[in-house]
């Protein structure tokens, strides 16, 4: 009987592991193209680095922050694996500040929270160890607007909230400021304000303006 129970447990463990296979891919043509573009830029030592996915990439940061040296290091579709893989280029810039916003694409592809947070930990370990003089801001994953979302991102508000709890805990552990973007972006129901998005996830121009204003009020910019 005991042998049968052990065999059943082993089969269950293998089945569960196979069901939870981790998709760690990131280097598609668009990612590689953006990386090639970054490599052509002149040296940007001391810049403020905006690091993330399409939500970061789509902002006209230099125009929104005239007079500041800004490096947009957003890559559409990127995830925590992709950010981790491209930290060398960010570190080489010796930025004055880094604003890190990443994670929604990880949730979109169904990655377990513990995997996402393990990547976050590795990202923060590398950045803090390599850039002791850089101010690193850890930003929450933004809320989404449910009725406008594509199917693969629907019903993830609870996962976003849980992930943000984990991200906030890591920021505290590393003694880094945590910026809860829900403070300016969320409506009374906790969703991304309707006027701030067309597709439920990406931001409109007025949302970027509100984001900048909020960061300035927080004395982060």
UniProtKB/TrEMBL annotation:
Keywords: Signal. It holds the Pfam family Lipase_GDSL_2. The keyword Signal applies. Residues 51-210 form the SGNH hydrolase-type esterase domain. Residues 1-19 form the signal peptide. The keyword Signal applies. This is GDSL-type esterase/lipase family protein.
């Amino acid at each position: 009987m005991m042998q049968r129970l052990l065999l059943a447990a082993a089969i269950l463990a293998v089945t569960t592991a196979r069901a939870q296979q981790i998709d760690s891919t990131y280097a598609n043509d668009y990612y590689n193209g953006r990386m090639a573009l970054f490599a052509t830029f002149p040296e940007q030592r001391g810049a403020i680095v905006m690091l993330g996915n399409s939500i970061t990439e789509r902002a006209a940061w230099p125009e929104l922050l005239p007079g500041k040296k800004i490096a947009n290091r957003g890559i559409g579709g990127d995830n925590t694996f992709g950010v981790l893989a491209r930290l060398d280029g960010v570190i080489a810039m010796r930025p004055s500040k880094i604003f890190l916003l990443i994670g929604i694409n990880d949730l979109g592809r169904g990655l377990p929270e513990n995997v996402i947070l393990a990547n976050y930990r590795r990202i923060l370990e590398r950045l803090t160890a390599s850039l002791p003089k850089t101010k690193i801001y850890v930003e929450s994953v933004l809320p989404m607007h449910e009725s406008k979302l594509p199917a693969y991102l629907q019903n993830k508000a609870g996962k976003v909230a849980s992930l943000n709890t984990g991200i906030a805990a890591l920021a505290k552990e590393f003694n880094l400021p945590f910026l809860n973007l829900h403070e300016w972006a969320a409506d009374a129901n906790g969703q991304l304000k309707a006027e701030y998005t067309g597709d439920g996830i990406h931001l409109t121009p007025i949302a970027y303006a509100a984001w900048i204003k909020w960061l300035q009020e927080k004395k982060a910019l």
